[in-house]
């Protein structure tokens, strides 16, 4: 097998706009009675992407997925897959397959029969179907399990059967609903990389629904963050993490410290914000479109804040506090530092040495500082 | 020491408690099933005599003080030799089989709809299924006479619509018997099917559709196979009592309706031949128990294999 090309290191069709989008969702809305589950979403997804829809429970991500599969009818809007309008196409005739959160394996059929089900419905000859089932079970590392019933398998094995069953028809689009939700952490991490490998090997477009931001970061070429039926930001994982466009996104992905303040100095290539909460002046080394005295938030990730006993040099981006709590996680330690205003700031520090005589301890007075490029200024 | 003895008292109590709980149904079965069954079995091996009770005793005291056991197998021999009995058994099983099949075909769509509809409508419909039990079974069968008789409701409607010019003869036919049986036993088919179908995971149906199966294929490949336990339970609940059914064929059936329940009744009340009637009952029980046991074994074997 030729070594597959990772698409995120190669072409980025969503930037270059060199191709037609493979899936085109325009102005899609779904209402259940008075409740709007999906609110006027427009989204383009390109061929061979691994796109993650990320959001909390009830944000509409599963409803969006179910509309793509054909299990829910949109209230308004349009879904096109590979140039074809899906409005009149019933679920059983769509070029999509779905991997269900509950796996939805047929309990009365063996693993083989489950995997072959889609091929049988398409009238594929039995001998060819058998070959493809064997091949597929090998791909998901389940060779030899074909004769078992689903209830004779472990959770991880069932998940593989569900994946095999949804991939066997070589769908144009594979929809995965919380695919790894039921697995324990270790198995989940392994399976994430397997999923990526399989996706690259088969060249199928994946849309994954998940509430697990780590999963979304690991898997996806792009992430769409959803909140209350809307997509609030679409971008590559590092964009979502480092350049969130709103407080919601910054807060939802990873952990973040938010300093509220007012703009005191708005220049072309820098901004100063005074934060009462932090009792400090914040200097940001790039221009921000804002006006004087406007309310702004600075979002700083915990790993981008430095913690020290001695007051660092400089006038800006320095706050003082006492260590309230320390959590030792092995690879890093999390410090919860209480400022004089009562605000708690999270700081992480990687434990680079096995023994550190200088370790900061509880109730010590410490100074926190960060680079003038470390934070993101958010207006909303 | 005291705490230990208190503990042992509790242990003993819980052991007795367990026995006590099982003892109630056990005694119920012994008193109301096993003993009467023994009596019937005993009578089936007696000889009919004109006396009171109308059968010969099993044990007889001899003059020399010994005890003689007298067993007559004649009653069973007669069941095989006289074609009437075999015909009656056969026809009962046939009627039971056909009624079970019709009930299944009628009940399945009903149960399916009730299971898939919204909760409010479901409760109303379930209520309607159970509602007939609130009136006497006998009354409901009599009502069918009014509906099916020559100048009854059905004929009245058919003739006033001009579909038939003469009244149809429906009463005292096998048709009326089937109508009565299917009507009476339908809830026993609907309820087990409903309890099975309501548990059916919707995502399985979605998965089937997702993999390219149209609704008809999904039904035959997923819904139907998964509802087999419900079908078996419902069929048992209909088939077993219908084999021995007496009231419905007696009230709605005609002279050519031959069912074993009616034969048994005749033996008992017309001929006053208690031993023959008992033998008929015993054979019927065996005829029903053997297939049930086989089915149960097959079911437990399949559930063992899958777990």
Structural write-up:
The relative contact order of chain A is 0.11. In chain A, helix 3 crosses helix 4 (126-139) and helix 4 crosses helix 5 (155-167). The longest helix of chain A is centred in the middle third of the chain and has 18 residues, at 185-202. Chain A has helices spanning 13-16, 61-69, 111-121, 126-139, 155-167, 185-202, 213-219, 237-242, 247-252, and strands spanning 23-32, 35-45, 50-54, 76-81, 84-85, 96-99, 173-177, 205-210, 222-227, 230-235, 257-266, 271-275, 280-284, 295-300, 305-308, 318-328, 332-339, 344-350, 365-370, 376-378. The model of chain A is unreliable at 1-9 (pLDDT under 50). Chain A is an alpha+beta fold and 380 residues long. In chain A, strands 6-7-8-3-9-10 form a six-stranded mixed β-sheet, with helices on both faces. Chain A has a five-stranded antiparallel β-sheet with strand order 13-12-11-14-20. Chain B is mainly alpha-helical. Chain B has one domain (73-306): MetI-like fold (Orthogonal Bundle). Chain B has helices at 2-44, 74-81, 83-116, 119-130, 137-148, 153-160, 174-197, 202-210, 215-226, 228-243, 247-252, 260-270, 274-306, and strands spanning 59-61, 67-69. Chain B has a two-stranded antiparallel ribbon with strand order 1-2. In chain B, a hairpin with a 5-residue loop joins strand 1 and strand 2 (67-69). Chain B is globular.
Give, in spatial order, the strands making up the sheet with the most strands of chain A: 6-7-8-3-9-10
Strand content of chain B: under 5%
Radius of gyration of chain A, Cα only, in angstroms?
25 Å
CATH superfamily caption of chain B: MetI-like
Comma- or semicolon-separated keywords:
heterodimer, A: 380 residues, alpha+beta, six-stranded mixed β-sheet, disordered N terminus, B: 307 residues, MetI-like fold, two-stranded antiparallel sheet
